[in-house]
Write a structure and sequence with these properties.
By secondary structure, the protein is an all-alpha fold. The chain is 78% helix and 0% strand. The chain is built from nine helices and no strands.
Protein backbone atom coordinates (compact mmCIF):
# COMPACT_ATOMS: atom_id res chain seq x y z
CA UNK A 1 0.00 0.00 0.00
CA UNK A 2 1.34 3.45 -0.84
CA UNK A 3 2.22 5.85 1.95
CA UNK A 4 -0.78 8.07 1.16
CA UNK A 5 -3.18 5.13 0.87
CA UNK A 6 -2.01 3.71 4.21
CA UNK A 7 -2.36 7.09 5.90
CA UNK A 8 -5.87 7.43 4.47
CA UNK A 9 -6.75 3.93 5.66
CA UNK A 10 -5.58 4.70 9.18
CA UNK A 11 -7.56 7.95 9.23
CA UNK A 12 -10.74 6.19 8.07
CA UNK A 13 -10.37 3.43 10.64
CA UNK A 14 -9.66 5.98 13.39
CA UNK A 15 -12.67 8.06 12.30
CA UNK A 16 -14.93 5.03 12.68
CA UNK A 17 -13.60 4.32 16.16
CA UNK A 18 -13.65 7.96 17.33
CA UNK A 19 -17.16 8.29 15.93
CA UNK A 20 -18.41 5.40 18.03
CA UNK A 21 -16.76 6.19 21.37
CA UNK A 22 -15.06 9.05 23.17
CA UNK A 23 -11.43 9.99 22.59
CA UNK A 24 -10.39 8.64 25.99
CA UNK A 25 -12.00 5.26 25.28
CA UNK A 26 -10.00 4.63 22.10
CA UNK A 27 -6.53 3.09 22.18
CA UNK A 28 -3.96 3.25 19.40
CA UNK A 29 -3.74 -0.55 19.62
CA UNK A 30 -7.41 -0.69 18.57
CA UNK A 31 -6.75 1.47 15.54
CA UNK A 32 -3.83 -0.75 14.57
CA UNK A 33 -5.83 -3.94 15.04
CA UNK A 34 -8.80 -2.64 13.07
CA UNK A 35 -6.48 -1.56 10.24
CA UNK A 36 -4.57 -4.84 10.31
CA UNK A 37 -1.24 -3.16 11.00
CA UNK A 38 1.19 -2.87 13.89
CA UNK A 39 0.91 -0.27 16.60
CA UNK A 40 4.37 0.96 15.56
CA UNK A 41 3.11 1.67 12.04
CA UNK A 42 0.26 3.81 13.38
CA UNK A 43 2.79 5.74 15.47
CA UNK A 44 5.01 6.09 12.40
CA UNK A 45 2.24 8.06 10.67
CA UNK A 46 0.80 9.74 13.77
CA UNK A 47 3.23 10.20 16.69
CA UNK A 48 0.40 10.60 19.24
CA UNK A 49 -3.25 9.63 19.56
CA UNK A 50 -4.06 13.33 19.81
CA UNK A 51 -2.34 14.00 16.48
CA UNK A 52 -4.26 11.11 14.91
CA UNK A 53 -7.52 12.59 16.17
CA UNK A 54 -6.55 16.05 14.89
CA UNK A 55 -5.88 14.61 11.45
CA UNK A 56 -9.24 12.80 11.44
CA UNK A 57 -10.97 16.07 12.22
CA UNK A 58 -8.92 18.01 9.65
CA UNK A 59 -9.65 15.43 6.94
CA UNK A 60 -13.39 15.57 7.50
CA UNK A 61 -13.55 19.35 7.88
CA UNK A 62 -11.69 19.76 4.57
CA UNK A 63 -13.80 17.18 2.75
CA UNK A 64 -17.02 18.67 4.09
CA UNK A 65 -15.91 22.10 2.91
CA UNK A 66 -15.41 20.73 -0.60
CA UNK A 67 -18.78 18.94 -0.55
CA UNK A 68 -20.62 22.16 0.29
CA UNK A 69 -18.94 24.66 -2.02
CA UNK A 70 -21.70 26.96 -3.29
CA UNK A 71 -22.33 27.28 -7.01
CA UNK A 72 -22.53 31.05 -7.65
CA UNK A 73 -24.23 30.50 -11.02
CA UNK A 74 -27.54 29.40 -9.47
CA UNK A 75 -30.07 31.47 -7.47
CA UNK A 76 -29.32 31.86 -3.73
CA UNK A 77 -32.07 29.56 -2.39
CA UNK A 78 -31.18 26.83 -4.92
CA UNK A 79 -27.51 27.34 -4.03
CA UNK A 80 -28.30 26.80 -0.36
CA UNK A 81 -30.35 23.67 -1.10
CA UNK A 82 -27.53 22.30 -3.28
CA UNK A 83 -24.94 23.00 -0.57
CA UNK A 84 -27.11 21.34 2.06
CA UNK A 85 -27.63 18.36 -0.25
CA UNK A 86 -23.84 18.10 -0.56
CA UNK A 87 -23.45 18.44 3.20
CA UNK A 88 -25.99 15.73 3.99
CA UNK A 89 -24.69 13.39 1.29
CA UNK A 90 -21.20 13.73 2.74
CA UNK A 91 -22.45 13.16 6.28
CA UNK A 92 -24.47 10.14 5.16
CA UNK A 93 -21.37 8.60 3.57
CA UNK A 94 -19.03 9.53 6.47
CA UNK A 95 -21.26 9.37 9.54
CA UNK A 96 -18.53 8.14 11.86
CA UNK A 97 -16.14 10.90 10.86
CA UNK A 98 -18.87 13.48 11.29
CA UNK A 99 -19.67 12.19 14.76
CA UNK A 100 -15.98 12.21 15.68
CA UNK A 101 -15.83 15.90 14.76
CA UNK A 102 -18.93 17.02 16.61
CA UNK A 103 -19.38 14.79 19.63
CA UNK A 104 -17.18 15.99 22.45
CA UNK A 105 -14.44 17.60 20.36
CA UNK A 106 -15.21 21.11 21.61
CA UNK A 107 -14.76 20.45 25.25
CA UNK A 108 -11.12 19.58 25.49
CA UNK A 109 -8.99 20.66 22.57
CA UNK A 110 -8.40 24.25 21.49
CA UNK A 111 -6.87 23.31 18.12
CA UNK A 112 -9.87 21.19 17.14
CA UNK A 113 -12.23 23.86 18.35
CA UNK A 114 -10.38 26.36 16.16
CA UNK A 115 -10.69 24.08 13.11
CA UNK A 116 -14.41 23.58 13.64
CA UNK A 117 -15.13 27.19 14.47
CA UNK A 118 -13.21 28.26 11.38
CA UNK A 119 -15.40 26.01 9.25
CA UNK A 120 -18.54 27.36 10.91
CA UNK A 121 -17.39 30.91 10.14
CA UNK A 122 -16.87 30.02 6.48
CA UNK A 123 -20.33 28.44 6.28
CA UNK A 124 -21.94 31.46 7.93
CA UNK A 125 -20.03 33.74 5.55
CA UNK A 126 -21.25 31.77 2.54
CA UNK A 127 -24.80 32.14 3.82
CA UNK A 128 -24.41 35.89 4.23
CA UNK A 129 -22.98 36.17 0.69
CA UNK A 130 -26.08 34.46 -0.68
CA UNK A 131 -28.31 36.67 1.45
CA UNK A 132 -26.58 39.80 0.16
CA UNK A 133 -28.10 39.04 -3.25
CA UNK A 134 -31.57 39.01 -1.66
CA UNK A 135 -31.48 41.58 1.14
CA UNK A 136 -28.51 43.76 0.18
CA UNK A 137 -26.56 45.38 3.00
CA UNK A 138 -28.89 43.89 5.63
CA UNK A 139 -26.83 40.71 5.23
CA UNK A 140 -24.00 42.50 7.09
CA UNK A 141 -26.12 43.46 10.09
CA UNK A 142 -24.82 41.90 13.33
CA UNK A 143 -28.18 40.30 14.10
CA UNK A 144 -28.23 38.63 10.66
CA UNK A 145 -24.64 37.43 11.12
CA UNK A 146 -25.63 36.01 14.52
CA UNK A 147 -28.68 34.28 13.03
CA UNK A 148 -26.55 32.70 10.28
CA UNK A 149 -23.89 31.51 12.74
CA UNK A 150 -26.50 30.13 15.17
CA UNK A 151 -28.20 28.31 12.32
CA UNK A 152 -24.95 26.45 11.56
CA UNK A 153 -25.16 25.11 15.12
CA UNK A 154 -28.76 24.08 14.47
CA UNK A 155 -27.65 22.29 11.30
CA UNK A 156 -25.06 20.27 13.22
CA UNK A 157 -27.50 19.34 16.00
CA UNK A 158 -30.26 18.39 13.56
CA UNK A 159 -27.82 16.32 11.50
CA UNK A 160 -26.49 14.45 14.54
CA UNK A 161 -30.06 13.71 15.65
CA UNK A 162 -30.93 12.50 12.16
CA UNK A 163 -27.91 10.17 12.15
CA UNK A 164 -29.13 8.64 15.39
CA UNK A 165 -32.64 7.67 14.32
CA UNK A 166 -33.27 8.59 10.67
CA UNK A 167 -36.99 8.96 11.26
CA UNK A 168 -37.24 11.34 8.31
CA UNK A 169 -35.80 11.17 4.80
CA UNK A 170 -32.66 13.10 3.95
CA UNK A 171 -34.63 15.42 1.65
CA UNK A 172 -37.00 16.21 4.52
CA UNK A 173 -34.05 17.11 6.73
CA UNK A 174 -32.66 19.34 3.97
CA UNK A 175 -35.99 21.15 3.64
CA UNK A 176 -36.25 21.54 7.41
CA UNK A 177 -32.82 23.14 7.77
CA UNK A 178 -33.32 25.39 4.73
CA UNK A 179 -36.70 26.56 6.05
CA UNK A 180 -35.22 27.08 9.52
CA UNK A 181 -32.52 29.33 8.08
CA UNK A 182 -35.13 31.32 6.16
CA UNK A 183 -37.17 31.73 9.36
CA UNK A 184 -34.14 32.80 11.41
CA UNK A 185 -33.07 35.38 8.84
CA UNK A 186 -36.62 36.68 8.45
CA UNK A 187 -36.94 37.04 12.24
CA UNK A 188 -33.59 38.85 12.42
CA UNK A 189 -34.55 41.33 9.72
CA UNK A 190 -38.03 41.90 11.12
CA UNK A 191 -36.48 42.50 14.53
CA UNK A 192 -34.31 45.21 13.00
CA UNK A 193 -37.39 46.84 11.49
CA UNK A 194 -39.10 46.84 14.91
CA UNK A 195 -36.11 48.41 16.66
Amino acid sequence: MSTEARREQLLRVAAELFGSRSFDDIWVDEVAQAAGVSRALVYHYFPTKRELFHEVVRLHVDELAQATLPDPSIPPRDRLRASIDGYLAYVDAHADGYRSIHQGAYSWDAEILELIEGRFAVQAGNIREGLREIVGDLADAPVVALAARAWVGFLVTATLSWLEDRTIARDELRDLVVDTLAGAIRAAIEGMDDA
